From TrEMBL:
<keyword id="KW-0472">Membrane</keyword>
<keyword id="KW-0328">Glycosyltransferase</keyword>
<keyword id="KW-0812">Transmembrane</keyword>
<dbReference type="GO" id="GO:0005789">
    <property type="term" value="C:endoplasmic reticulum membrane"/>
</dbReference>
<keyword id="KW-0460">Magnesium</keyword>
<comment type="similarity">
    <text>Belongs to the glycosyltransferase 2 family.</text>
</comment>
<dbReference type="GO" id="GO:0035269">
    <property type="term" value="P:protein O-linked glycosylation via mannose"/>
</dbReference>
<comment type="pathway">
    <text>Protein modification; protein glycosylation.</text>
</comment>
<dbReference type="InterPro" id="IPR001173">
    <property type="entry name" value="Glyco_trans_2-like"/>
</dbReference>
<keyword id="KW-0464">Manganese</keyword>
<dbReference type="GO" id="GO:0046872">
    <property type="term" value="F:metal ion binding"/>
</dbReference>
<feature type="transmembrane region" description="Helical">
    <location>
        <begin position="239"/>
        <end position="261"/>
    </location>
</feature>
<comment type="subunit">
    <text>Component of the dolichol-phosphate mannose (DPM) synthase complex.</text>
</comment>
<feature type="domain" description="Glycosyltransferase 2-like">
    <location>
        <begin position="10"/>
        <end position="178"/>
    </location>
</feature>
<dbReference type="InterPro" id="IPR029044">
    <property type="entry name" value="Nucleotide-diphossugar_trans"/>
</dbReference>
<protein>
    <recommendedName>
        <fullName>Dolichol-phosphate mannosyltransferase subunit 1</fullName>
        <ecNumber>2.4.1.83</ecNumber>
    </recommendedName>
</protein>
<dbReference type="GO" id="GO:0004582">
    <property type="term" value="F:dolichyl-phosphate beta-D-mannosyltransferase activity"/>
</dbReference>
């Protein structure tokens, strides 16, 4: 049996200028998987780095890790950039039927990878790392403005999904559910939210794993004003995707009511005009 045939789990890591975080990320993931109580065997897991042509030594770093026996590979994109499209590319390239997405910056603790992967099943087709679970102090190490932005983004998404934290970016999906999604927004800021809506994930098919955000070790935050504007644009598109049929029904309903009112009003005028 080939190595590819034994892979049941794929961890996708979108990256840009994250070379300083790659080695600690990979070693911590596989250290967690090799623990005696890990629910997922390390030999059944692959890690895919989807790099947006960083040219910062990431390729050489991954090659060194491969020589040390880690099952990691890197895809370098030269004609496309963006977080969501990188995640989609990784899911498309994944060998495993159980796929997990996490950031390269170590804010999604690698020690949670085994639990997140194990939470996926034929009945739980989506797993979400949530910062709003019991016993979690949400984003405790973040500055106030980041916490306000995070809470506001979550509030705006509440009408779209019952998931407690679709903004965390630490999530997993079964391949069969991913393949059902149509019209994914490759330019969107939050691919998890896009997948929840467009793959039509039922509320009872979502497993949630509470976790606390780690602190970025290397590199700079990707949160910018441009990113926030893209998120608002994505929300608008998702609201239309999910509720457009309801809006059409509402417009038709209002139109019918107006026609009936008009007919009633005109009908009430007819006897008066005939009397004259």
């Amino acid at each position: 049996m080939s190595t590819r045939q034994t892979i049941h789990y794929s961890v996708i890591v979108p990256a840009y200028k994250e070379n300083g975080n790659i080695r600690p990320l990979i070693t911590r993931i596989f250290t967690a998987l090799k623990q005696y109580d890990s629910p997922v065997p390390a030999e059944q897991v692959e890690v895919i780095i989807v790099d947006d042509n960083s040219r910062d030594g990431s390729v050489e770093n991954v090659q060194a890790l491969q020589h040390e026996g880690y099952n990691v590979r890197i895809i370098v994109r030269t004609t496309e950039r963006g977080l969501s499209s990188a995640v989609v590319r990784g899911f498309q390239e994944a060998v495993g039927d159980n796929m997990l997405c996490m950031d390269a910056d170590l804010q999604h603790p690698p020690e949670y990878v085994p639990t997140m992967l194990a939470a996926l099943s034929p009945s739980a087709t989506f797993v979400l790392g949530t910062r709003y679970g019991k016993g979690v102090e949400m984003d405790k190490d973040w500055p106030l403005y980041r916490r306000v932005i995070s809470a506001g983004a979550r509030l705006l998404a509440l009408p779209l999904t019952t998931a407690s934290d679709p903004m965390s970016g630490f999530f997993g999906v079964r391949k069969e559910a991913f393949l059902k999604a149509r019209g994914l927004n490759s330019q969107g800021f939050k691919i998890a939210l896009d997948l929840l809506i467009k793959a039509k994930i039922a509320p009872d098919a979502i497993a949630e794993v509470p976790f606390s955000f780690g602190v970025r070790a290397e590199g700079e935050s990707k949160l910018t004003g441009k990113v926030m504007i893209k998120y608002l644009e994505q929300l608008g598109e998702l609201y239309w995707y999910k509720f457009s049929s309801l809006l059409v029904v509402l417009v038709v309903f209002i139109f019918v009511i107006l026609v009936l009112l008009a007919r009633s009003f005109l009908g009430s005028l007819e006897p008066a005009s005939q009397h004259k």
